[in-house]
Amino acid sequence: MFKRTKVTDGTATGQGPDAENWDGKEVGFRKKSKVPGVMITQYIEKLPEGKSHPDFTRKPIALTIQEGKFAFFKAIVTGDPKPTVVWSRNNGDVSDPARYQSKYDPNSNEHTFEMPHVKPDQADTYKCFAKNEYGQAMVTVVLNVIEVGFKMTKAPQQQAEVANCNFKKVLKRRSKVVPKAEEPEKKEGEIDPKFWELLMSADKKDYERICAEFGVTDFRWMLKKLNEMKREREEEQAEFVKNLSDLKPIHINADGTASFELEFDLLDPSSSIYLYKDGEMIPYTKELGDKMKHCLRKVGRKYIFSMRDLMPEDAGFYQLDVEDVNMFSTDFKMVDFLVKIQEVKAMEREDAVFECVISAPLSKLMWFGKNMPLEQGDKYDIEVSEDKLIHRLVVKDCMVVDKGIYAACAGIKSCNAWLVVEADKGAPKGKKTARKTTRAGGSGTDLQKVAQEQQQILDKEREERKEKIKAAREAAAEAAAAEEPEKTADSGAGKDKGAAVKVERIDKTSVAATTTVAGDSGSGHSAGKASGGAKQDGSHADAGGGHSAGKASGGARKDGSIADAGGHSAGKASGGAKQDGSHADAGGGHSAGKASGGAKQDGSPADAGGGHSAGKASGGAKQDGSHADAGGGHSAGKASGGAKQDGSHADAGGGHSAGKASGGAKQDGSHADAGGGHSAGKASGGAKQDGSHADAGGGHSAGKASGGAKQDGSHADAGGGHSAGKASGGAKQDGSHADAGGGHSAGKASGGAKQDGSHADAGGGHSAEEASGGSRQDGSLADAGGGHSAGKASGGAKQDGSLADAGGGHSAEEASGGARQDEPLADAGGEPGITSGLSDIHAIRGQPAELTVKMNTDCDGAWFKDGEPLKSGGGISITKDANIHKLTIHSCRDTDSGLLRFVSGDLSTEGRITVGDVPEFDEDDLHKFSKPVIVRVGQNAAFKMPFQPQESLTVSWFKDGTELKDGGGVKIVREPNHSRLLLRDCLRSDSGEIKIQLKNPFGAVEATSQLIVLDRPGPPEGPVETVETTSSVIEIKWNPPKDDGGSAVTNYIIERQERGHSLWTKLGDVSAEKTSFRDRNVTHGKKYSYRIYAENPQGLSDSLETADSIMAGIMILSGPPGKPKVVSTSKTCINLTWTPPEDDKGVPIIGYQVEKRKKDTNQWLALNAINEPIEDVNYAVKDVTEGAEYEFRVSAINESGAGDASPPSAMACAKNPNMRPCFKDPEDFLVVRAGNSVRVKISYEAEPPPHITWLKDDEPIAPWINVINTEGMSQLVIPSSKRSDSAIYTIKAKNSVGEAFFDVEVRVTDEPKCPGPVELEQTVYGKVAVSWVPSPDQELDDRLYYVVSQHDSNTRMWKTVADRLFANTYTAHNILPGIEYHFRVYAKNDMGLSDPSQSPTWGANSNRVPISSNGVSSMEISFERPPSILVPLKVHTPPKGYQLYMTCAVRGCPTPNVSWYLNNTCINSDKNYYITNSCGVCSMYILRVRENDGGEYRVVAVNSLGKAECSTKLTVRD
User: Fold this and answer.
1) Closest Cα to residue 1090, out of 1016, 1157, 1025?
2) DSSP track, 328-346
3) Of the residues 245, 421, 438, 1518, which has the fewest C-beta atoms closer than 10 A?
4) Are 420 and 402 in contact (CB under 8 A)?
5) pTM (2 decimals)?
6) What crossing angle do the helices spanning 447-482 and 207-214 adopt, rounded to 10°?
7) Phi, psi (5° rounding) for residue 1389?
8) Number of H helices, E strands in the chain
9) How far is Cα 564 from Cα 519, in angstroms, rounded to an integer?
């Protein structure tokens, strides 16, 4: 249960905080706060300097919270002097400290109002007052509390409230859409209330979709009812909001939330806003950071409802209400994927296609590529099938960077797949391949088939809904018809019997029948009017009842006889005026009332028209022999004709319901007409004794209408059957025909032709047009049936000159009067009708407006506006020209808007006129907009146009006449008072005319501007023409560029390149008016290339370059050089030489070009390009194939190019010459460690290839020694060497030219063993002889020698005193007394040193005699001490990413344990720091300093005697 806050307006007397102290006497000036919703009252007009009234910088926020939670409001108040803050509520007090607590935090300056364990009765509008001596600020905030569970104590309370008639408190707030759980069982075919709610919030373009979804097919009925509901809803909305606009239905956002938006202004800021889902209220929050699922936030005028963490159960029907009035409704649907997108493998430059099928039509899916939303543009195409079930994403021109995951999202449903882009292996390297025309991907299934199956399912469901609605309507119609009582038929029979009795009695006193027969007019069943025809003989013309809202009246008579009017509608039927005092008959009123005849002067009763409802209509009795007509009873009652004494007929109006209508009996031979029974009953003519006919009116339902029987052979006319029934004429004895009245369907009914001049009656047409009887000259009857259709019925042709009666035209056709023989013109029996009616128009304020109505006959009419009659005057003119009626408004004003109606008799037409203005622009804004917008290429262009807010205003943007749509590089923003156009990343081609169009029903207005995109100019137009070329001047010419880039070209820049060079040199520039250039710094015979640039303020254009080089002067080529000679040949190279040409034609030679031709071929191949000449007269040709034969020729090159070629050289074969073997840079000594492999490599040259032989100490080598011979090299390999492999190896190379030898000494050895014991002996003072036993390897290795090192107690260092000793003794010199000496002896060979042999100590302590202490004990000295810091850490500020060393020195005994700390965290085990401690020097190394390496570093040294520490700070710079 959700308890809504009761919102009240303002603060009444006595309310608010401390009403006694905060009285209303201090009335001041209203001030506007910067914070919306804050009301400020300033007590004095001018504030003292430095003082201010109170104001809110942060106001409390409305809160919706669950019962039992902690609720609070916060506010921040400013003002000088400091204001006092007080809280209050509208309905109750806040003095209970257990429920309400006010707090203030001086640090944050926040005032807090807390409500612990909030309860439902605390839901209210709260107010916060801030007051000082200069003013007061007040703000309101709403608290809504959601009740939890059922409260037993509330049941008695609610019953009491019901007993006291306090229903408002009992009723809970509910939506007009009932929740699903509480929906009553719907009748079959009943329309869901959601249908109307959705239509009232939807765009017109969505009407058809919504109707199809709910199975509604009658669009006219839907639109009519929708307009009525909209008018009612707008009136309700106007009580709470204004300017309701921009309704955007719910949709899924890119962040996974769903939201809908709308804009409006609250008339009362304290009005409550409620949200419903499927008719049930849902709680929401206004805080963005809150954790509630639903959120409603306000941004300016816009209200945005959003919900997060979407689930399938979130689908439903959402509504937003302000107080009790609905503002917006939207339907949130969940669709599923029938076919999901599949992985696509595409080649580079190929298009990739992702496609899917969804379960319900959706105009747009959200596509994502690599977690980024995708839009229609140059890179992506988004396609949707016509049925909106198949959706495709086309990734155009795929590149490797496009690979990744792509996803399609439809609500909370999504599917994704990989796009794999493979490189085109067949594409040439370094060149961009052309875009492919093929497409890769697709779902691999027949999507069209899946979509068709789904569409069939949807169509089937839609048709089922339509059938249900149709069946429900038919059932309702049948039920209404079945409820009408059947007793009408019984009562009708009784009345018929009574009528027969009266006829018999009247017949006895009857007078002679007159020769004139009545002309009856059938009853019109629609909006038209039925009137009786005019007669010259004074007999009456009866008018049938008009069945619609019109009015039926009797026709005028000259003799004063009656004109009967049968009014069939809710209007009024009255009889016509008579001159003789006889009565005027009144037609039957079609409502529940009863219609009766009026009073007559002669005392006879007034005739009563047929009552068309449940009442009864019958004719009155007459004494003068005139008839008493009974109008047609149109309901369950019965209508019958009255009795007459004079033999004239008694007409019975048509019974229009289930009853039965029949004509009365006549004795004088005049007819008794029976009105058409319009329902399931049966209508038949009465019996006549004189042989005159008894007309049977048309049965209008499933019954049957037939004519009565006649004795004299005249016809019995059968009225037209109006439904599925049958209309047929009666049988005649005289052979004349029995006329059948018109069927009331699409056909046409007319009376037949007669020879005796008597009339042929046609049954009544029952539709919107009218049927009337024609006029006769002979006084015979012309009966016109009621017009039952849209057509018109008139009489047929007769031979005796009388008019044939026209039956009711039952279709859209028209029946007109036939031709007569006795008169030149046939009479048309048509009544007035509207041929051109009114329609809704929009008129411009201050301009004239004209409304025209065209009638088919010349008749009068009246104009009405909003129900009030209009007359000429006051700016309005009403004119009539024949059958054309005009209403002219000379200058339209707002008061002229309204519903105009034209009425002519019972005919009417209406149309609404709306007065307004064509949209217009402010002249200043128009002037600003007309100024061109100039941007550079790649920049954004923005246009903005303000305008006055209007309803039904359409804003469109155009570029060069083409309408721009939002999407891609175009962004269109539509606000109520302005519109903006943004063109992103403009190109030069975007330049053009930009136009904005404002359009409403009254007209359109446009404003134009220009977009100029500035860019570099295009290249000058080519080709470059050579105007002149001489030995000293070259003149060239070009054309200006086609595109100047939006700004004029200022100048042209010319560059030149000499042929054979790569450098381009700037020659100068020329003005934009000059498009030619003369180059005077040229050399005769040389060729030059030129390129020209156009320059404007935006930069340089691309260059226009000459197609070919231009030579200065005439081409002069050199003569041929001498015949080339072959200097030497080899298999890889042939060396040539030649002599310069004898005649160089006076032009210096810059080089030569060499060509070759292979034997048995005719093609000469250039070995160097002309722009890469050979400067010398010899050349080494290396592009040869071994064994092939070639000949060569040479051309001399000068500035004009290559001259004539020399004669070819002699054939030369690419092969080496014969030569004696020789070795190239061999090594003659090689030392190898025992156990390793031995590899001896010897390179040689010889032709032909020699025979290679290896020897060991002049003996053949052992079989396990491998020899590997390749071209130009021989290699000897001993896999695992031993000392016995040491020897001299000889290589021998021999061919047909000679032989060669080379010796290589190979020594296989190992590290020597250490020498034997070392002995010391002093021979003379200051010298010591050192001797040692030889190393065991001395005999095996003749290259072994010894090294002696010496150490003394003074220097405490070892130094080598003898090296390369091949003896086993050494004499040490400068041996001083008092110093200790030590000696080490090493054995050394090619592998390195052996381990040392240590000598005994020589020196001061070696011969010392021990001295006894004689019992005297010596004192021991201790070196232990606690740690201490010798060198502390220093401050470091290294840049980020640099390396860092940090050191300090520590002393202590025993050696202390050192630990490093960063911000009190030990980092000894952190791998980011390299920490060492060497002899008390503690170091830390950081390879690359990071930001988090900054901080305080501390070194702590600890041993058993104490602790020492030092610290420093490290600051990392960016």
Assistant:
1) 1025
2) EEEEE----EEE----EEE
3) 1518
4) no
5) 0.31
6) 70
7) -140, -160
8) 8, 96
9) 11
- Residue 1073 CB contacts under 8 Å (≥ 6 apart), including other chains: none
Mean pLDDT of 180-189: 55
Which amino acid, one-letter code, is at 291? K
Is 924 in a helix, a strand, or coil? Answer: helix
Residue 1284 backbone zone (phi > 0: left; psi -120 to 50: alpha; other: beta)? alpha
Query: Which residues are registered as beta bridge partners of 755?
Result: none
d(CA 698, CA 765): 9
- The type of residue at 195 is F
CB neighbours (10 Å) of residue 1464?
8
Rounded to whole angstroms, the Cα distance separating 370 from 364 reads 19
Kindly tell me if the per-residue pLDDT of 640 is higher than 70: no
Backbone angles phi, psi at 481, to 5 degrees: -70, -35
Question: From CA 1429, how far away is CA 1450, in angstroms rounded?
Answer: 5
Q: Kindly indicate the confidence band of residue 527, based on its pLDDT and cuts at 50, 70 and 90.
A: very low
Contact between 715 and 705 under an 8 Å Cβ cutoff? The reply is no
**Residue % of the chain over a pLDDT of 70:** 69
The bridge status of strand 1328-1332 relative to strand 1369-1372 is: antiparallel
Classify residue 870 by its DSSP letter: -
Helices 193-201 and 219-237 sit at what angle, rounded to 10 degrees?
Answer: 70
Cβ atoms of 1107 and 1090 closer than 8 Å: no
- The whole-angstrom separation of Cα 70 and Cα 119 is 10
Q: β-strand 63-66 against 135-146: which pairing, if any?
A: parallel
**What's the token pair of residue 981?**
């156009």
Task: Give the H/E segment covering residue 128.
Answer: strand 124-132
CB atoms within 10 A of CB 853: 25
Handedness of CA 86, 90, 95, 98 (dihedral sign): negative
What Rg do the C-alpha atoms of the chain give, in angstroms?
60
For residue 297, what are the contacts with CB-CB under 8 A and spacing of at least 6? Answer: 286, 288, 303, 304, 306
Distance, in Å, from the CA atom of 1387 to the CA atom of 1400, rounded to the nearest integer, reads 18
Tokens of 1241: 């490599």
- Phi, psi torsion values for 204, nearest 5 degrees: -65, -30
Write the CB contacts of 280 (distance below 8 Å, at least 6 apart in sequence). 175, 179
How far from 272 is each of 125, 200, 264, CA to CA, in Å? Answer: 10, 22, 14
- Asked if residue 675 lies in contact with residue 538, where contact means CB atoms within 8 angstroms, the answer is no
Decide: 1050 and 1044 in contact? Cβ < 8 Å.
no
What are the beta bridge partners of residue 326? 321
End-to-end CA distance of the chain: 59
Question: 713 vs 1482, which has greater pLDDT?
Answer: 1482
Residue 402, phi then psi, degrees to nearest 5: -80, -10
Record the tokens describing residue 1221, joined without a space.
């073997």
